[in-house]
Each structure stands twice: as structure tokens, then as C-alpha cells.
Amino acid sequence: MRKWTLAMMACALMWAGTAQPLPQAAAAESISATIGNQETAVARAKQLKLIPENAEITEAKRIVHPNDYWRIYFMMPELDTEGHPTETGEVDLRSSDGELLSYRHTKWPVDLNGWGPAQEAFDLAKEEVGRKEATEIAKTFLENQPWQLNAEWMEDSYPESEYTTRTDSKGVHKIRFDRSIDGIRLSQPSFSAFVDRISGEVVSYEMSWAKTDFAHPKSMLTASAAARLLVDHAQPNLTNPFGDQRLLGYEMASFYSLDATKGTFPANLNIPIPTDKVIGKPTITKAYARMLLLSMYDIELQYVVTEVSTETWKAEPFYRMVVRPEVPRFYTGQAPIIDARTGEWKDYVGESLQQSVPGPSKQVIDAVVSTSKIGYPAAVAVEGKFSSLAVSPVVRNGKMLVPAKEIAGAVKGNLVWEAKGRKLTVTKEGKKLVMTVGSNKAYLNGKAIILQSAAQVVKGKTYIPAEAFRQAFGIEIGWQSASRFYTIGLGGKSPALTELAWGELRWNAQLAWLKSRG
């Protein structure tokens, strides 16, 4: 139980999220008062509403090295079922002026039954308070605390590993909040509330706050520039998970941190590249695995603590690429890997995932498959849905000719080639279109029609005019040159696509192309 409290106080990564910041708590009163003894130190802490009524002061001492400050320990008299105080805390105040330097406060439930590693799963049929309602309860609870802390709060919806929460009661929702400045979160543990699933009561909470100097640089990298640097920097590594030589996978780090002003990746704020010897030979290319793995990430501007002291912490802005909350994780928190022999998603012990990995975020899409970075020759979007294609269109006399076999397949038509007469026959839904290479006369169900251009053979591939599909089957075929996509509308014009939809199409086309090259 006590290890859990220490873990909350320790520096830990807090993932990105989209919740709006909570209203700012009441700021600490600006009173310049030298603290010279225990009585004035305790009085100052109580003035800031940091020590509960009836709390017992267990120790108040002055620390003069490396900085001069007072530390006050307190606890409430009520004990839990194991004989420990249910509520404890620690306050650090600067001796020269009484300014708050750090604050830690933990409250435990009296009844510890159901807390600890050995506990039964909660019966969801008994749940009266869902996570959404619990979050609102926790927000209100935090807003109503009397602590005079200079802080804004932002909900952290990113999950902790099952291993980290193994001693938490299954009968509560754990709701976490990070500090934030101007809507930018601080990637540091701050406040957690444990809300009972039946009663809705906040049965336990943990607070950790430190005076922090937040840097406000005059200029920073743009979000798009940072995203490009992050995805280029992130590279997969081959691994034998847990040293098991039977398993061979590609993995990537759980996060990457980019200095928002310098555009660098500080070694002390990034996970080092593994140097373990790997046994086995992959059959899946690194490029294909990398693109699959990149789909796991979000990119967010965060404040990261770069210096810790008893006086003031320092935090600087970093762009961080982190694993998204909806990505399934292993029990100990590791993100999925790509099987280097099959290309399948696996958990960290080589088992197939029970949940699917979501598609890539818009930030990653824009950075990886902008129109200037795609490598595939061409692809097809039928009614806005992706279909792979290996052949680009050709233009003759201002008219677009499309690859006959590929397009016929994309629209679920049947194509027959007669080499002797150099004739193509396309049938679809009871209609039959016959064309001859070099002739602009075609036959639809036996009736002659005149096309604006003729079918042609280019470098061994047969191409037919796009207009033939429109005249014969009512299928509109267009060409989006920037994304290298044929757009096909089965009932006329193709549906209009958003910028994000085009990005997702390019992503799927690039992924299919990389897979085919392996």
C-alpha cells in the first residue's frame, strides 16, 4: 500500500489527452513573511489551507542545505484497518518568505478490504456510477478543495497498465488529473481521485504539487514541423521479447520527446535504443513495420520537467509522440509489436491481439503521407473506399485512359481479352461493352457507340478511355493527381472527400505498396 503512495510522488510519464483544463484553483496568498520557528511554519501552512482541521503535526523541521526551507509532516488521527493513518501529508515552505515549494497529500479509505493484489473482479451488474459520471464527481471534488495552489488542472484519460494498478480496488474508478498551463499539460503526476462505483463517493485521493517555473519561449517549432521530425526520428527495432528467441518482432518506444525550441531529442528525456543481440531473420521489411507501428501514436505539445530541486522545478515545452489511449497494451504496459515474420500485430509475449489497433491520427498521417512523400504509383477509391492499384493512368490527346484489367476489377466487372482480334469485353450487371484496340467505335449490348478516344496498349498494358465506363455503366472515373488516386463513383460522381479522408486513403495506399515490396 505504501509503495503506491511513493509511486504517485515519483516522476512518471502522463500521456496526452484532449480534455479541457479545469478552472484555476485559488492561488496562494502573496504574503511575504519570514519563517523562523515551527509555530510560524505551521501557521503559514494552515493559512494556505494545506493542513486539515484536527490534523496532528508529526514533525516540523528547518532544512538549510541545499536550500533554506521548512518541512512539515501531518496526519489525521483516524486509522485504517491495518493500523495506519488514513490521511497524511507533507508541506515545504521557503524560510525567507513563506512561499509554498511543494505539497503532497494522501487520503486512504478506512476499510482496506478489496485493496491489494489479491482481489476479485468487480461485478459490473452492481455498478451505479459509470466512468463518465465518476470523472465529473472527481472534477467537482478537486475544484472544491481548499488548498491554495497555483495550478490549473486537465483530465488525463490515458490508461495506466494493469500492473501499475494491480493493488487498486476494483470497486473504484481511478480518475487522474495533470497540471496545465495555457491549456498545455505538464507531463508529471499531480492528482488522482478514487470514486466508488456504487456510492459515487471519493473514497481516496493523492495530490503531488511542486512550485514550477514554466518556460515561455518567444518562438517554437510549428506542430507540423515537429510532427515531421518526430516520425522521421522514430525507427523500429528488432527484438526477441523477454529474450525468447522463438519470438521476433519490431517494436518502437512508448514515447519520443522533441525539444520544441531547439528541435533536438535530449538523450535523458528519450528511451535509449536497445543494444541487445537479436536472434532471427525478419521476412517483413522494416519500412512496412515502421508504418504500421506509427499508427499507434498521437503528437501533443506538453511541458516536461527538465530540472528538479527543493526550491523550484523547471519545465520546458516539448512535442511528444506518445502511444494513444485506445491502443491495447500488455499487462505491464508495453505497446503491441509487429511480428517480423508474418506482419501481424502481437502483444509483447507474441500472442495475437484481442483488440484491433486503431488507424493513424491526422498528425501522423500528415507527416508520413503528405502528397510529396508518397511512393506508390497509383491507387483507386471506389465510392471513397480504398482499393490498391499498381498502374497509373495515361493521357492521350487530352483524354485519360485507365488500365482496363485493374479498373474493371475495382468496379466488380468481368474483363475478357481476345488477343487475336485485340478485343476487350467488359461485363457488369447484365451490360456488355466490347472495344477494339485502336478504334473509337465500341458496342454496348450490341449497339454501336462512339468514344472520344480509342483503347490502346502502352508498355504491354491495355488501357481504355475512362469515358467508356461512364457511357456504358454510369460509372464516373476521375484522377486526383496530387494523391495519385482514381476516384470512381458507381452511380455517377464520386463522393466529395475531406482532407482527412484523402490522408487516410494515401496511408492505406502507401502501406499496401510497402507490403508488396517486401
Automatic annotation (TrEMBL):
Highest taxon of the lineage: Bacteria
Record keyword Signal present: yes
SUPFAM superfamilies: Copper amine oxidase, domain N
Keyword Membrane listed: no
Xref: InterPro entries: Cu_amine_oxidase-like_N, Mao_N_sf
Domain Copper amine oxidase-like N-terminal: start-end pairs: 382-487
Keywords linked to the UniProt accession: Signal
Record's signal peptide: 1-21
Annotated Pfam families: Cu_amine_oxidN1
Protein name: Copper amine oxidase N-terminal domain-containing protein
Source organism: Cohnella soli
